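User: I want to check something. If I give you two sequences, will you return the structure for each one separately, not as a complex?

Assistant: Yes, each is folded on its own. Here is the first sequence with its structure:
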Amino acid sequence: MQAIRSPLRRVALQARLPVVRPRVARPFSTAPEAKSNTTLYLGIAAAVLAGGGYWAYTSSSDTAREVGTVAKSATQAAKAATNFVPSRADYQKVYNRIAETLDEAGEYDDGSYGPVLVRLAWHSSGTYDKETGTGGSNYATMRFEPEALHGANNGLNVARGIMEKIKQEFPWISYGDLWTLGGVAAIQEMQGPKIPWRPGRIDGFAKDATPDGRLPDATQGQDHLRKIFYRMGFNDQEIVALSGAHALGRCHTDRSGFEGPWTFSPTTFTHDYFKLLFDEKWVWRKWSGPKQLADKKTGTLMMLPTDYVLIQDKSFKKYAKAYADNQDLFFKDFSAAFARLLELGVPTAQFVSSEPWELKTLDEQKK
């Protein structure tokens, strides 16, 4: 590793490249950040190529992580300098690799990485604050501490590790595009609706990381849900639609403290989450963990306090009932809300397409 680092340092000194140092705090601004990132990436890309090595970092400090981000983006910048412009077909290849990875989970959870990839896409986007314009999927700041260690992100190191392997195969894609595309692929491959998506997110730095408390707290009620989702710009109908993502996956005591799946088919995207809310009798589970509900009939399913309020709050309930009665309506509304969630915090000018794409599933490509 020292042999790799030394040539890079010499080249950097000879080229008088800028040294990455902690920056003085300044107002949040996306456009200047994108410009300065590009200049820095191109400079360091030249040094990396000239030095014959790739900067690898091992320090856990924010500065080292920022250096690592710049270095990893060097490959992306170098390809751009040689007129490499990813096409829709290139993004379809990334989608396909993600889709193939879903079934490589083995004994992990219910045999699929799909639910945890949806959660990664959701949590990396749901930090957006419309008042300050901060957060969202643009900078993929969950790569940095302390955001990576926020309680709501427990266990997402698994998903980030999966995505890191794919990033090595396709180094030109940004983390924000990769993570959100992972959520799209997971939903679509688990028999969910098509999710319109388009690339254009850029990689940020540790200074762009969001404060804790921006993601939903499952122990809370309807007032908390509205505070979290209204901050992102969503309304009551969209809150309920997005909650339908709980059709997938399960909770873990070593992560959230809660335990169990929401549905009997946690790797298939359906409207069963809403049907079960109305069709089952839910009772408070008697155990040493946090407050959660269990279905009285089997005791194997669970609902969180934030789930249960969807049938207690009058406004939420009418949408939840509509989705319980009509899966097509749920799919349509979820697709629209989830697609918007994945674009929060990304300036429109950054997107490579004026209209989102609908990428094909693996099955569709076989026809």
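And separately, the second sequence with its own structure:
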Amino acid sequence: MMDPPLSSLRSLQLCDQEGSESADSSFRDVQDLPVPQQIQISNITCDSFKISWDMDNRGGERITHYFIDLNKKENKDENQFKHKDVPTKLVAKAVPLPMTVRGHWFLSPRTEYSVAVQTAAKQPDGEYSVSQWSEIIEFCTADYSTVHLNQLLQKAEVIAGRMLPFTVFYRNQQRDYFQQASPSYRSRDAQCSRMLPAVKDDSGSDGSPISGKLEGIFFSCNTEFNTGKPPQDSPYGPYRFQIQADILFNQNTNIYFGDFYCMYTSYHYVILVLAPDGSKEDVFCKGRLPELDRSNNRFLTCTEDSNGALLFHHAQDVILEVIYTEPVDLSLGTVSPISGHQLMSLSTVNAKKDPSCKTCNISVGR
């Protein structure tokens, strides 16, 4: 059997490690093998990184392999359904450094890892002699790039379905949220009766570049097929603020694709960002998110009729979560109770993506 390829580490031998000792009882420590020093991590992406280190020349000619011990840092808030990462030792033949480590099965985006390295010499009997472990280095993988988001965008477009007309954006909350004095809500300005942008939570894909960074206000726009109106049920509260669509979405608004995910159900969610042209969050989105044509995309469109009036349509077969990036004055819309139920089980607050869904995952870190 041939040894695993060197530069990409796609073929791996996996084994456990305890402490700073070699995991395999057949490995033998050899004092004259150099210990890697000054570990350097560079070119970090959502599912790869480059690693290099310094070594003295003592015993260097005997090195045949490198062992890279990669461990995910424990996160108590981690998605309980997500596949568990195990301590992983990557075995590769010795090659000129830096070496690229790549693999979406053991690397996830925006995740903290620790890494340590051994040098090794393969013996004629197939066993390894190894050096002592290097120091432990910590690093964090990156967000999805626009290349990865475009892959998600293409998958979302496949299931978006036909476009349905709508006229209002709406946002559900508890009654107190919409009252004049609401100091308990950080996303409300009680004195000015405004809804304020808040930092997006961690719902959706782990690699989404907007989670924990983009500021905005979540709105919905989906309608019921039989009535053409917003549904009367909501997971977010029994009171609803409605605002005419053209106030938030018009020819001066840019639209971006933010994410595509599901939560272990048949429902799929698409996150879109509406940012007024030239605003702070518009600048943030450019270069990070795929920009959509406001009048011609598969999710949410704004077009003009022959009289110059704006018409709006949304995709039928996905649930749209629309983030508007500027404050919204309550006086621009209306607040009223809904007649349906508050379906808390459908809430997407900090909801994590199903990593096993073939519809909304791409072949990089989850």
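Because they were folded independently, the notes below concern the second chain alone. The two ends are 31 Å apart (CA to CA). Residues 146-346 form one domain.
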